[in-house]
Design a protein that fits this description.
The complex is a heterodimer. Chain A is of the alpha+beta class. In chain A, 55% of the residues lie in helices and 16% in strands. Chain A has two domains: 10-56 and 283-409, no CATH class; 65-272, no CATH class. Chain A has helices at 2-21, 23-57, 80-83, 90-99, 136-139, 152-156, 166-172, 217-224, 243-257, 273-282, 284-316, 318-327, 331-364, 374-400, 404-409, and strands at 65-69, 105-119, 122-132, 144-147, 161-164, 182-185, 188-196, 212-216, 232-236, 269-272. In chain A, β6 (182-185) and β7 form a beta hairpin. Chain B is built from seven helices and ten strands. The two termini of chain B are 24 Å apart. In chain B, strands 6-7-8-3-9-10 form a six-stranded mixed beta sheet, with helices on both faces. In chain B, strands 2-1-4-5 form a four-stranded antiparallel beta sheet, covered by helices on one side. Chain B is α/β, with parallel strands linked by helices. The chains are: A alpha+beta, B alpha/beta. Chain A binds chain B through residues 2-4, 6-7, 9-10, 17, 21, 319-320, 322-333, 403-405, 408, and chain B through 51, 54, 56-57, 76-77, 80-81, 83-85, 89, 91, 95-97, 99, 108-109, 111-117, 156.
Chain lengths: 411, 240
């Protein structure tokens, strides 16, 4: 053990000297690893960020909320089987509400896009408008920055009131509080009751409440027409542990309400946030994986560069290897010497690579909520060393098994 | 006492379909403290014999006992240990590590013997002192003259206190004067009781030894003691 340690110190010194002596060559070789590590870690950071952004954007869909609608969110297979299903009606919502035993809040929602909103000379086009009830605040976990959410009375009386998101506030009320002010939606006057708290940029801008207007469902129907927007029923279970129970209860109730004959499949769907995650991992997740694999190719190219240079290095130092062996260096000692050299080159490359990709991750953070995960840093360093060991192995093996007589004769 | 005992060894190389008998059948004994020169024209097998004696190569046939241990069937790592502990090499082309200074070159065998740094440096300094280079410890080979380089190599060979010193044409790359100095150094080392095996093709170099073994075509042609041994006069470079 002591012998090994003494030799290893020497081996480390030889390796670092060999790298220092061939500065330009070492730098160019290291460049391959640097590029590889920068590509892989930056890609990994971006992918982690992408997923974070996605998850935070679907967090408006509560994890304990079930969404009952005519069709599943991510329909696989033949679309025609869903086409002929009857819409969910407000009557069905009322009956479901009466029948359910497990729920914290239940809200019927209809939504549409493309409404024009005006305040004096300011206007916003293509706004998402939601018609729902006061319970939507609970099912969607809406927080208000100013004013209040609509009340049960507002909903029952179909008052022309609304809550608006921050993006709309910015466009329509640049210098004043919107509460109790009037806006015109498709030329119909509505009173602003409250302003929703800023949610921040979601995943590619989708699902964000910031560009949204919420109003009583009957006001929505009279504004947009009763047939506009498919009714969806949002059921907040309140306890993720009872999600499956609640789902079973909803399915049973809806089958009765919609008179689905025994043995026939459901003519509605109960969706949940989980479906988004699954869909993400199945599509974008796979693309992300492919991206990392492709960037890993650059690391592979770097590894080939290392191997190439190590072969050159072994050939160049054949005589030195011969001398060392003649004087008593064992096979493993020479093997370790060259492995250490290539691992060291790669480790240096890995560290420089991380020093470059860390600022890059800060730039990515401007677009996606991410930081370079510690795991990626550790992994990058381990991968660097591994690349060095693997790509250095064949040259090192060749060096360690040189015949000392031939090696000494080499000029 | 027998250090080297060789019985009917042969080294056969396969060149294409032809067998080349570099060593056909060689038997010899070398005792402790002997100063032996191995001579012969090129192709006589003296390099092959030196490689076998130096445990750099194993014979195809025959028995080689080094200090009563059979080394003819040892594997590479076992041979490396023998070379490290028992044999000091001096080569025609010096074979120093070009990027290391004199001290580090002399230290090298001790590193592979697993000796700690402080003791290593001490012993290396002492060895350099013995060959008269105590003021050149931190010079790299390219900052030293040919004779000085060979002295560093001799210090490296001596530093482990080996059982034999194996010198392969040690004056081949030196001018006559420097060569004589180096040979004088070998004589002193021999006088100290070290066993030296000298490989050369120069008669006047061989005459420094007490015994000359002449090889031809892979066989020992003649094995004789030198009657008129050449003893160089001391020139004061060595403190041995």
């Amino acid at each position: 053990m002591k012998l090994f340690f003494i030799e290893f110190l020497e081996i480390f010194t030889i390796a670092s000297r060999a790298i220092r002596v061939n500065k330009l060559r070492s730098a160019l070789t290291t460049l391959g690893i640097i590029i590889g590590i920068v590509a892989v870690t930056t890609m990994a950071t971006a992918m982690v960020g992408l997923r974070e952004a996605f998850l935070s954007s679907i967090s408006t869909l509560g994890s304990d909320v079930l969404y009952v609608s005519k069709t599943p969110w991510f329909a696989m297979g033949d679309w025609s089987q869903y086409r002929n299903r009857k819409d969910i009606t407000m009557d069905q919502y009322e009956r479901l509400k009466d029948m359910l035993t497990i729920h914290e809040a239940i809200a019927p929602t209809k939504s549409t896009f493309g409404m024009n909103v005006k305040r004096k000379e300011n206007s916003v086009i293509s706004t998402a408008v939601y018609g729902t009830t006061e319970e939507f605040q609970k099912t969607s976990q809406i927080e208000l920055e100013e004013g209040r959410f609509m009340s049960e009375m507002d909903v029952k009386a179909a008052r022309k009131v609304c809550m608006i998101g921050q993006d709309i506030v910015k466009e329509l009320f640049p210098n004043e509080s919107p509460v109790n002010k009037e806006i015109r939606i498709n030329n119909v006057p509505f009173k602003v009751l409250g302003v929703m708290t800023k949610q921040g940029s979601g995943f590619l801008g989708s699902f964000s409440m910031d560009g949204m207007i919420i109003m009583p469902i009957k006001a929505f129907e009279s504004l947009a027409g009763e047939s506009r927007g498919r009714l969806r029923i949002d059921v907040k279970v309140g306890d993720t542990a009872r999600l499956e129970d609640s789902k079973a209860e909803i399915i049973a109730a809806m089958r009765i309400i919609r008179k689905v004959p025994y043995g026939k499949p459901d003519d509605f769907a109960v969706n949940q946030q989980e479906a988004f995650k699954q869909m993400y991992d199945q599509t974008i997740g796979i693309i992300a994986l492919a991206g990392i694999v492709i960037t890993a190719l650059s690391l592979f190219v770097g590894a080939i560069g290392i191997m190439n240079i190590m072969f050159v290095s072994v050939t160049e130092r054949t005589k030195e290897i011969g001398i060392r062996k003649a004087i008593g260096a064992k096979t493993w000692s020479i093997l370790l010497q060259f492995l250490t050299e290539s691992a060291l080159i790669c480790l240096i490359g890995g560290i420089i690579g991380l020093m470059i990709s860390f600022p890059l991750s800060l730039i990515i953070n401007q677009f996606l909520p991410t930081s370079m995960p510690l795991g990626v840093v550790v992994l990058a360093l381990i991968i660097s060393i591994l690349v060095g060991l693997i790509s250095g192995f064949l040259p090192a093996w060749k060096a360690s098994h040189l015949n000392p007589v031939d090696a000494l004769r080499y000029e | 006492m027998n250090i080297i005992y060789i019985e009917h060894i042969a080294k056969i190389y396969q060149v294409g379909s032809e067998e080349v008998h570099a060593l056909a059948d060689v038997s010899l004994n070398i005792d402790k403290g002997e100063y032996v020169a191995i001579m012969g024209p090129s192709g006589s097998g003296k390099s092959t014999l030196m490689n076998v004696l130096g445990c750099l190569d194993t014979p195809t046939k025959g028995i080689y006992n080094f200090k009563n241990v059979n080394v003819s069937q040892m594997n590479d790592n076992e041979l490396a240990t023998i070379r490290n502990k028992e044999i000091g090499f001096v080569f025609q082309t010096f074979n120093l590590l070009p990027r290391s200074d004199a001290l580090h070159n002399v230290e090298l065998p001790l590193i592979y013997a697993g000796i700690p740094s402080s003791e290593r440096k001490e012993r290396a300094r002492l060895a350099l002192d013995h060959v008269g280079l105590s003021d050149r410890t931190h010079h790299k080979p390219n900052e030293l003259s040919g004779g000085q380089r060979q002295r560093v190599a001799i210090a490296r060979a001596l530093v482990t206190n080996p059982s034999i010193i194996l010198a392969d044409e040690p004056t081949g790359n030196l001018d006559t004067k420097t060569g004589e100095d180096i040979m004088a150094l070998f004589n002193e080392i021999s006088d100290q009781g070290n066993t030296i095996i000298l490989v050369t093709h120069e008669e006047y170099i061989a005459e420094h030894a007490a015994r000359i073994i002449r090889l031809r075509d892979g066989l020992i042609e003649k094995d004789e003691n030198v009657t008129k041994r050449f003893i160089p006069k001391k020139n004061g470079t060595s403190k041995l």
